[in-house]
From TrEMBL:
InterPro entries: Aldolase_TIM (IPR013785), BATS_dom (IPR010722), Biotin_synth/BioAB (IPR002684), Biotin_synthase (IPR024177), Elp3/MiaA/NifB-like_rSAM (IPR006638), rSAM (IPR007197), rSAM_sf (IPR058240). Keywords: 2Fe-2S, 4Fe-4S, Biotin biosynthesis, Iron, Iron-sulfur, Metal-binding, S-adenosyl-L-methionine, Transferase. Its EC number is 2.8.1.6. HAMAP family: BioB. This is Biotin synthase. The gene is bioB. It comes from Nonomuraea longicatena. It comes from the Bacteria. Pathway: Cofactor biosynthesis; biotin biosynthesis; biotin from 7,8-diaminononanoate: step 2/2.
């Protein structure tokens, strides 16, 4: 297929497709599915070999959020049957992080529900980071705490946080349909604030919330504009007790096409298979490993994933290897783009004008 030849040529050069080409990937037929996976696999292997980076979620604070994101089981008024608790103690979070690291996770993602942290919350997280570093010094730490101020971002960076996750989730034109308590621009601003503080930006999407193909292309290109380093692709988990509980619109084949489109737009960027993979990709999960170079290990924030042992077996059976702590995830030319800020807020040095 000419489209795939073009996409592979561009991907091997680290170039993104046009919007039309990205859209055309989503419109390919099931007859072409294995060709699409194979083409995305060539791009994936060029930049990431057969390595799979494992990430492990630690939910520091669960449920009772004042925001109304319709896809989220922790939202305002959620009737979802989930665990609700306030901040884990640093030693509890460190024990959870250690379990993830022992299971092979290279990155631990510290997540807290809520619109954004107070300064006191950030200090709690800083204490938690110290406790984690004591027990698991090699693990990368990503924080996901909601909307962030510049000062808070700088504080997290100084405390040794490597990355900050804040997903755009869907296209700007769709955002008002999934959330009314904050906007798309708020999310974009936080990704920028994190990057500018020297944190590696992790931001992705949720597919399967009623969006069109064009909306998916829009959000992926918005993420590319933000020059993020990792892109988690979630598939909606339709929790009972949330407004999207009846929304089941994904097939395993569509999930693979969405992942492939993301890979072509981000040839040399970490593309992570995130929430919902078990229920939407089902038996086709191993095929997704030919496209993505990163997955979550084990459970998600409020739902259970397949056991970590099954993930490791799947990776091995599919002929991939778990990425070790010594190997840089991103290719050298991208890894070098993130320079930790050493001036401006939180230092004695003047910011760069
Ligand atoms: S996604 Fe975050 S901000 Fe939105 S309801 Fe869930 S926890 Fe709250």
């Amino acid at each position: 297929m000419e489209l795939l030849t073009t996409l592979v040529d561009k991907g091997l050069r680290g170039q993104a497709p046009t919007r039309e080409e990205a859209l055309a990937v989503l419109e390919t037929s099931d007859d072409d599915l294995l060709d699409v996976v194979s083409a995305a696999g060539r791009v994936r292997r060029e930049w990431f070999g057969r390595r799979v980076k494992l990430n492990y979620l630690v939910n520091l604070k669960s449920g009772l959020c004042p925001e109304d994101c319709s896809y989220c089981s922790q939202r305002l008024g959620s009737k979802a049957d989930i665990l609700t608790y306030t901040w884990l103690k640093p030693h509890e979070a460190a024990a959870a992080a250690e379990a993830g690291a022992k299971g092979g996770a290279k990155r631990v993602c510290l997540v807290a529900s809520g619109r954004g942290p107070t300064d006191r919350d950030v200090e709690r997280v800083v204490d938690t980071i110290e406790a984690i570093k004591e027990r698991s010094p090699d693990v990368e730490i990503c924080a996901c705490l909601g909307l962030l101020s510049q000062r808070q971002a700088a504080r997290l960076r100084t405390a040794g946080v490597h990355a900050y996750n804040h997903n755009l989730n869907t296209a700007e034109s769709e955002y008002g349909k999934i959330c009314t308590t904050h906007g798309f621009t708020d999310r974009v601003d936080t990704v920028r604030v994190a990057r500018e503080a020297g944190l590696s930006a992790c931001s992705g999407l949720i597919a399967g919330m009623g969006e069109s193909d064009a909306d998916l292309v829009d959000v992926v290109f918005a993420l590319r504009e933000l020059d993020v380093d990792s892109v988690p692709v979630n598939f909606l988990i339709p929790f009972t007790g949330t407004p999207l509980s009846q929304t089941w619109e994904l097939t395993p084949q569509r999930c693979l096409r969405i992942l492939a489109m993301a890979r072509f737009v981000f040839p040399d960027v970490e593309v992570r298979l995130a929430g919902g993979r078990e229920i939407h990709l089902r038996t086709l999960q191993p095929l997704a490993l030919h496209i993505v170079n990163s997955i979550f290990l084990g459970d998600y924030l409020t739902s259970e994933g397949q056991p970590g042992r099954a993930d490791l077996e799947m990776i091995e059976d599919a002929g991939f290897v778990v990425e070790d702590a010594e190997t840089a995830t991103l290719p050298g030319h991208r890894a070098g783009l993130v320079s930790p800020r050493r001036r401006g807020a939180g230092t004695d040095l003047a910011p760069n004008a």
